[in-house]
Amino acid sequence: MRTVSIILFILIGCSPELSGERSVEDDLGRILDVSPTIERIAPLAPSITELVFAAGAGSKVAGVSTVDDFPPSIDSLPKYNLIPMDFEAIVSLDLDLIIASEQVNTLKDADLFASVGLPVFFVVVNDLEDITQSIRNLGELLGTSMIASHRASELEDSLSLLQLRTADIKSKPDVLFLIEHTTLYAFGEGSYIHGMIDLAGGKSLTEDMSLRFPILTDEFVLTSKAEVIVGTFGDGFEISQLLEAHPTWDILPAVESGRVYNLNSDYYLGPGPRLVKGAWVLAEILHPEMMSNP
Amino acid sequence: MNRWTFLLVFIALISVFFSVSLGREVSVTDALQVLWYHASFGLGSPPDPIVDRIVWNLRFPRTLLAFIVGGGLAMIGAAMQTLVRNPLAEPYILGISGGATAGASLFYLGFLPPLFSKALSMPLAAFLGGLCAIIIVYSVAGSRGRISVSRLLLAGVAIASLMGALTSFITLSSPEPDRLRSVLFWLLGSFHLAQWSTLVWPTIAVSIGLVVLMILSRPLDGMLTGDESAHSLGVAVESMKRILIVLASLVTGSIVAASGAIGFVGLIVPHAVRSFTGVTHRKVIPASFIGGAVFMLWADVAARMILPNAQLPVGIVTALCGVPFFLILLHKKQHHFG
């Protein structure tokens, strides 16, 4: 048994040094052995692609998922399916590293990639601060820390400016953020969306919901007395569609005052750098007078 | 009205009242005030508009839909079990629900050409999907003017599988992935989209079903004895089979269109009811209707209240609560069928 342990120690414990690999820790606290110069990577979620590009490592992306659509330069890259995961297509890209999102991917996926010698680095984004931190981490991991740090600082400056603008707002309207307008999916406890609404000068009504993505009841919405309803309702949405699906909402303050807004899902549904832009758009919706002043 | 009927109707009324009154946002007295205000055509002080909307426009149509859907599924389940003379039969056995969900998914996830999708609504697409499935099953099962029950069952199960695969394919390769969440919720069965207008088609279909099944209760009793014996008892067996299939398609299609595919109610309620009523359809059909309705009402109350301010698909609750209850019943009671 002792001999086996020693052999295992030699094989596993020493191999990184022998092949020149380095150890890194991902956001889930997993220690990975990765190549010192990572040249080819594959992101496993659209928000991860955006973070990698923001970190200045876009040229290292060897392929993207079929649901990726940003930035436009990814159009010419090879595509792979995420649901169900097309392992063969991803492995055949001859990669050094895969970057996954804790929100989208599972550790089982990572195990499968590990079995063919591909390390998977998990990124966790729970709030706006995590985004700039992730950009910096990815820059360090991928050897583009200068660009990453610069971009992260830009985003932080933008967030600070927004915070300054909305800091003095006394009356924060009650905001209901819906992912859809028929079945009322919303963001629950622990989501980054509440921080965005707060930063934009509003108060999220679903902040304390115990589920990650609760399906709200019409009763809850009616009694919440939402002053503003925002949602990612899709192209061509009109307020009449909301009232058709939920006729009882006609007496909601948000509906009575016409404060129902359709948002661009790209700025809200994936925890990537474009959330910062999303927070600014929200602030302009919630406090148009304040935001129009320079 | 005998003792059992009286008891069932009483339980049904009490259940409707509690389903309308129970909830996190509105008290029982508030609910009573709203119900009285509407029942008396505006007598008394008008209720708070939010409370009024919650009770009268959300909970009441939702309660009635749950009542009709539960009753309809259980009643058709009882008839299907007699049609195929098999205790495993349920309203979805003929592939109707599979076809309906495939139709609704095709429509909702943007697979149909714009010309079709403009002319359709989700309920209509579901109904047409269910109709297509039953037409295929029916044409496979029939030969020389007779319907083979075993072929009907086998074709139904096969078509249900095919439609299930089709639905999975549609949902996985949808051109509108953002809408997937809604479809998944609907596929599991839910009354969350109930409005007064949603009630029209299921009410008409289930009422027709209930009346026809009550009229046919004696021939249905005859069918339990087998095709030959039923024939010798003067039952027009082949016509009965056709009527039951059309009725099942009509009722199930309209139910699935309104509330998605809610499993187990149509299977377990008729069995539970037979333990008390015996096998006579004059008793089994109305008792199944009320039993299914009451069961579904309480399942929906649970679906609304288990999670604070959020809801579960009711199909999950019917399976979670219904199946253990059914297993206990099977274990404890001498089971009657046919």
- Count of spatially separate domains of chain A: 2
What sequence of helices (H) and strands (E) makes up the elements of chain A?
Answer: HEEEHEEHEHEHHEHEHEHHEHH
Structural class of chain B: mainly alpha
> What is the radius of gyration of chain A computed over CA atoms, rounded to a whole number of angstroms?
22 Å
Mean pLDDT of chain A: 89
Q: Estimate nothing, just give the exact number of structural domains of chain B.
A: 1
CATH superfamily of chain B: ABC transporter involved in vitamin B12 uptake, BtuC
Which fold name corresponds to the CATH topology of chain B? ABC transporter involved in vitamin B12 uptake, BtuC
Give the structural class of chain A: alpha/beta
Q: What is the end-to-end distance of chain A?
A: 73 Å
**Order of strands, widest sheet of chain A:** 9-8-10-11
Overall number of strands of chain B: 2
CATH topology of the largest domain in chain A: Rossmann fold
Low-confidence stretches of chain B: none
